[in-house]
């Protein structure tokens, strides 16, 4: 049995954030465990800080901030290379 891939989406609830949440859910595979963090929650903001999130929306896969999220913007191709949508 495949190990679950942990996918974290950091969102402030804006339209762009919601688009990224939809993208992640659309691309994710059955072994992806998706958690959407509301950046209005202090615990979510603290988690984001530990991962180096500098802007939202942002996506971390298996505890690593996706390369496309280290600067600005989310890129589907980069998320796929990081493992989104692929079983372990």
- Quote the CATH topology: Glutaredoxin
Question: Looking at the structure, what is the overall shape?
Answer: globular
Average pLDDT works out at 90
Which structural class should the secondary elements be placed in? Answer: alpha+beta
Could you say how many structural domains there are in total? 1
Q: Count of helical segments?
A: 3
Protein name: Thioredoxin/glutaredoxin
Pfam family, one: Thioredoxin_3
Organism: Thiomonas arsenitoxydans (strain DSM 22701 / CIP 110005 / 3As)
InterPro entries: Thioredoxin-like_fold, Thioredoxin-like_sf
Describe it for me?
The protein is α+β, with helices and mostly antiparallel strands and 88 residues long. The chain has one domain (6-82): Glutaredoxin, CATH 3.40.30. 34% of the residues lie in helices and 23% in strands. It contains three helices and four strands. A four-stranded mixed sheet has the order 2-1-3-4, with helices on both faces. The protein is globular and about 30 Å long. It comes from Thiomonas arsenitoxydans (strain DSM 22701 / CIP 110005 / 3As). This is Thioredoxin/glutaredoxin.
């Amino acid at each position: 049995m495949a190990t679950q891939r942990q996918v974290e989406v950091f969102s402030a609830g804006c339209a762009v954030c919601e688009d990224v949440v939809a993208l992640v859910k659309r691309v994710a595979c059955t072994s992806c465990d998706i958690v959407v963090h509301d950046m209005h929650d202090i615990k979510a903001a603290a988690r984001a800080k530990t991962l180096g999130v500098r802007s939202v929306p942002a996506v971390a896969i298996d505890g690593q901030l996706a390369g496309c999220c280290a600067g600005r913007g989310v890129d589907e191709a980069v998320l796929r290379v990081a493992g989104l949508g692929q079983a372990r």
